[in-house]
Amino acid sequence: MAFLSRRMDGPQDHHEQRAGIAYLDTRTLGAQIHEVATGPGSAFGMIALAGLALAVPALAPFTLPIAGAFTAYVLTRPLILPLRLPANARQKDQNNPVAHPRRQGVDVPGPATGDWFLGWEETTGQQLWLSNDDMAMHTILPGSTGWGKSQTIYSLLCNALAQGSGCMIVDGKGSNNLVFSVKMMARRWGREADVRVINMLVSSGDRKSHTWGAFSGVNPEGLSELLLTIFLPEDKSGGGGSSAYFRDRAESLIRSMSSIWVWMRDHAGIPITSESIRASLSSIQSLIDLVGTDAGPSVERVFSYYDLDSQSLRTMPLPEAFPLPLLDPVRSYVNETGGFSSSKGGVDSQDKVREQHSYVVGGFAKAFTQMGSTLGHIFRCGLPGVDFQDIFYNRRILVVVLPSLENHPETNASLGRMTITAQRYALAPALGTSLEGDYVDLVVNRPSSAATVYPIVYDELGMFVTRGLDVMMAQARELNVGITISFQEVGTMYAALGRDRVVPLLGNPKLKIFGQIEDSAPTKEWLESTGGTMQVSVLPGYESSPTLGVYSGMDRADIREIKRISWSDVQSLRSGQAIILFRGKRIYTRLFYAGIKPSGYNRLHPLLTLRTVPAGLERPEAQAIRAGQDIPGRGFQSAPDPILDAIHARMAQIVDTDDPVRNDIRSLFGADIPGAGTQYFAALFRGVRSVSLPKVDTRVTLLARKENAALYESMVALELLNYDAESQTRSRVARLINALPHLHARKRKG
């Protein structure tokens, strides 16, 4: 039976020019010899000279000087690695040029600063090191599923933990495996107690997570931006008309209320939660009660909030110290809503007012439900367990797990954008606002200053990329923060932000680690444009031999411009292999593998739960302290001694001054204190009443039976840990042991 062969018109594997066979090495002979002499192959020359000297001893006088000169060259030549020298090399690094201290425009080799180990160069096996300053210029890590992005990220972060720093990971498609891996990584350096987890995975019903109050420490501007990110995501439809009108009204309302919420948080002790925000916004009657009348006192204005202890809505009058100008924007909003007028009666009789207000706040319901119900175990808290400023400045480890399968992509992206916005405003105070003062105190010793960089990793960034991240990357280097963004392809980011906004975001990082990529459309175009082009010498073609029928290369070389990164090389990369671009260098790399394999039992370290007491629910003790009844001379306290009173008065004058210590001492004790003479300290105790000490039982009890001596000594040693007197302790223990036989006798009779 005959079989039909398949027809294939396309090129086969044996037709393809691979392994760079068409590229020619057109360097000079001296350059090629220098490369061989300085590479690993230089040892063969020494072996050949040694073999020649053994085979022909008469040539030893000629080979020994050559071998000695070559050895001296090898020992004295500068060590040059592809990137940086490791810091423990303790020698000058040719790849770290610094300005000459006395000659302008002249660079000299700087010290070795390599602190981050990336891997090895593929062809030479040389190590690849980067400094903390290099890592603060940010990193890009693209790679398709299965290439090994997660292990590459863990290996990078091990460098940070090994230097005593922390890290932060935000995973757009996280799972509990990420938490186990990070805990295993932290366990290597004894940092398990520093790990914080914001776990938004709730589908299994196990809601284990640390609490996070995104609004607990931001200023009014930061709070308004966070709320706008949550409640009013960017409108991609570009719709106008009434939709845009009510959107602008909602933004105005949020910005107006942000200052009030922050003031009540800082001065009245009311935490900002989604429930309290809902209590203030959902009903326009709450806003009307808040603004009151123009001439009315603060106590007639009522603030609505949610009490976490009683799990109910409550109200409280505004404190007397509340700045009334903060209410003006809210009052304007109320008056502009549906033609509201207090002369028309209550809001129940003004249907249009309630209708228009419902249009403004109606879109907030989804976010309120998400934060108050679905993720209530994270956001419903007074004082949160996770504070981003604490994470950044104290170098802790934070893992944020976003639920990619549970939520709608827009909901997941909103949570990620809220996280990034909260990070931005947590870093903002480190930039400083004071323009007068010592440079070292205000700039050099910022809260974020440290010898090591603090890495932030955004894994699967395309799922939650947001505007403002490029600005954060531009300023993060000054704050000693290095950002690593990881993704599979750039198409999702183009769709989320637009091409014009993604290009500067991807163009900022200096270090680019390209893994295996499959997307041959926009990602390939971006990769090739990022890698740039280079001019190479290539074989122009082949000539056939008429006699033998074979092909031989032409006797000339052409110069052509090609892509520096071959797409076939990128697609053929395996796990642990990458192509690195850094400062114009392209390096084929074998990446460092830290071997992070999660195992064992994992648990979240519980944090102390704290809550603030709202000002309207103060305890009597707090009210007495606020009224000053704890001060001597007021309330139940007796009048102070005149000497102590004079010192207290002088301390009140110097406590708010920035004078040197000498001036404070002079202000405190410079003038005579009435009735004290020169014995200031002793004068404070002249009027102290005598204290009657409690009576102490001085009877001595001895141990009755010597066989109980071991028990007696053990109990005495235990009781002495309470810092009791030894004689009294021994008597007390002896009485107890002596009474034991009587207790046993009573039990037998019973």
From TrEMBL:
Family annotation (InterPro entries): P-loop_NTPase, T4SS_TraD_DNA-bd
A Pfam family reported for this protein in Swiss-Prot or TrEMBL: TrwB_AAD_bind
Type IV secretion system coupling protein TraD DNA-binding domain: residues covered: 135-259
Domain of life (superkingdom): Bacteria
Gene3D superfamilies hit by this protein: P-loop containing nucleotide triphosphate hydrolases
GO molecular function list: DNA binding
Keywords: DNA-binding, Membrane, Plasmid, Transmembrane, Transmembrane helix
Spans traversing the lipid bilayer: 47-75
Protein name, entry field: Type IV secretion system DNA-binding domain-containing protein
Species this protein is from: Acetobacter vaccinii
